[in-house]
Amino acid sequence: MMEKDTMCVQSGWKPGNGQPRLMPVIQSTTFKYDSSEQMGRLFDLEDSGYFYTRLQNPTNDMVAQKICELEGGYTAMLTGSGQAANYYAVFNICENGDHIVMSSTVYGGTFNLLTCTMKKMGISCTVVDPDAPKEELEKAFRENTKCVFAETIANPALVVLDIKKFASLAHEHHCPLIVDNTFATPINCNPIAWGADIVTHSTTKYMDGHGATVGGCIVDSGNFDWMAYPDRYPGLCTPDESYHGIVYTEKFGKGAYITKATSQLMRDLGSVQAPMNAFLLNLGLETLALRVERHCSNALKVAQYLEKHDKVAWVNYPGLTGSKYYDLAQKYMPKGTCGVIAFGLKGGRAAAGMMMDQLKLAVIATHVADSKTCILHPASHTHRQMTDEQLVEAGVAPDLIRLSVGIENINDIIADLAQAMEVTD
Questions:
Q1: What is the distance between the alpha carbons of residues 74 and 70, in angstroms, rounded to a whole number?
Q2: What is the pLDDT of residues 193-230, one digit of tens each?
Q3: CA–CA distance from 258 to each of 54, 77, 85 (Å)?
Q4: Which residues pair with residue 316 across a beta bridge?
Q5: Is 184 exposed, middle or buried (0-12, 13-18, 19+ CB in 10 A)?
Q6: Nearest to residue 422, comparing CAs of 331, 358, 340?
Q7: What is the pTM (predicted TM-score) of this model?
Q8: How many CB atoms neighbour CB 357 within 10 A?
Q9: How many other β-carbons are positioned within 10 Å of the β-carbon of residue 337?
Q10: Pairing relation of β-strands 145-151 and 401-404?
């Protein structure tokens, strides 16, 4: 078994003799076959292969395989965005009349997706405090609850999930646990090893690492026994008439979940990742382990600097020994958490805006988790659709500043913050 930093470089594409050393981009919409019968068998899912890139593409599959190995999963697929990954992960097993339990601190876009957009599809969602005791969380479950959704490290609240607690709850109620592992990355945490069943990523963030490509990924552990609850998961356990009555769990076993997502959801909804984006993502993955180490090292030093600054009201970073999530972070992510810090200034919202406008190295951007340091005020930007009550419930204080610490020299990052905060008097 290779170490993760080796997997980042070596997994996925395995060149044969005389083949290109670098993973090729199969930039083609379609694939040629010699007989009509061959093509027909592909459309019946009787043969494995490629026929239309909206469903699957060899370049995408090689990159998905690399991420799958990094996460310790069974099989995986790429999507056009992290939002698409989260949507497919849930919609693949939820139908009209079903129910989801979701951590309240998830990213604002995911919060909207599961509480508003999917509500229009007849799928309801109960939001829970991830820090609540197990006895309290129990009350959120219903007979029609089909999955639990949470983030390893919440964006931007930086709440660290007690994965074992949530996995135990989900499994006691015959549900899979879906965990978005974008911020921690598989370098720092493998949710599957702690009981999660399905892992999602916005590959747009640390995996790409350069702000160049939008994408997502779903990794299935292969561990959840769908056939143990056939009445709860009919999409996987009963015939799919759109594929001539195939029962995914019977035909594909542990690969049923991802096969259904690729052959049914991708077929009908699209959201495929472009092969060129997958190629660029793979380049980012090759240095993921190196970059994550630098992100975490820089972020800890910045958090320690901010903690001592007289104009800073509070700092939230799971790597700080004084953080309420320090112990959970050490349990699940002993090598480091992420490069994102949340903090507030004593001058509140007004001071946040003044400080951000003075930055020279760090840029104001909606992005997060790439090589360049960037900053955002969620209440004014990514979470502006939420009420103050919803912001507090999501762990996003009105004065919260999200700082994504890059891989620049730490002295330059701190110097930029120092000069910018001088104007906040």
A1: 11
A2: 999 999 999 999 999 999 999 999 999 999 999 999 99
A3: 15, 7, 11
A4: 342
A5: buried
A6: 358
A7: 0.96
A8: 10
A9: 32
A10: unpaired
Task: For residue 124, give the 3-state DSSP assignment.
Answer: strand
**pLDDT tens-digit series, residues 410-420:** 999 999 999 99
225 φ/ψ angles, rounded to the nearest 5 degrees = -90, 90
CB-count exposure of residue 48 (10 Å: 0-12, 13-18, 19+): exposed
DSSP code per residue over 317-366? -TTSTTSTTHHHHHHH-TT---SEEEEEETTHHHHHHHHHHH-SSSEE-S
* 3-state secondary structure at position 234: helix
Q: How far is CA 106 from CA 81, 148, 209, 390, in A?
A: 16, 12, 21, 12
Q: How far apart are the first and last CA of the chain?
A: 55
Residue 273 CB contacts under 8 Å (≥ 6 apart), including other chains: 60, 78, 79, 80, 203, 215, 216, 281
Strands of 312-316's sheet, edge to edge?
A: 312-316, 340-345, 401-404, 374-376, 363-364
Rg (Cα) of the chain, in Å, rounded? 22
**Token pair in block for residue 219:** 């990794």
